[in-house]
Amino acid sequence: MPGVRPPIRLVTAQRNGPTSRSDRYLMRKMLQDMPNEYCIDLVKNTTDALLRLNDWTPREKSQPFALDAVALYDSVSPVLAIEALDCALRQCRSEWSDEFRDWIKGLVKHTIFNNKFMYRGNWYLAKNGIPTGGVL
Q1: What secondary structure does DSSP assign to 51-103, as a single string?
Q2: How many whole angstroms separate alpha carbon 20 and alpha carbon 109?
Q3: What is the rounded average pLDDT of the residues 75-86?
Q4: Cross-strand bridge partners of residue 116
Q5: Model confidence over 32-63: pLDDT tens digits?
Q6: CB neighbour class for 82 (10 Å; exposed up to 12, middle 13-18, buried from 19)
């Protein structure tokens, strides 16, 4: 859009995006428990990370470090995200048919590749990475 300069680092609030209703349905009805089943060591938030670090004992000659990723979601490959979902579905929902798992992956692909957001009254389509700010 001429004359409109979006910020360098957009956080796209997908909770009100075009696919937000189907995303909420998919997450609440089918995928809600999967992150805890598939990622058994998933760090939920900063408090959880600090509690885990509190019990951590470094090994001899270890060198802990911190990593701050700039534009984290922009750097996640949509193709790899779908592959990770496929792996999680096969591992955690093996009782579901291939057709049903493919249907779910198709809905998630639709969300990822239709990552639209509004900034100052104008609609944009994200070109890189995966959506942020949504339930998926």
Answers
A1: HHHHT--PPTT--------TTTGGGS-HHHHHHHHHHHHHHH-TTS-HHHHHH
A2: 13
A3: 89
A4: 125
A5: 888 888 887 777 777 888 888 887 777 788 77
A6: middle
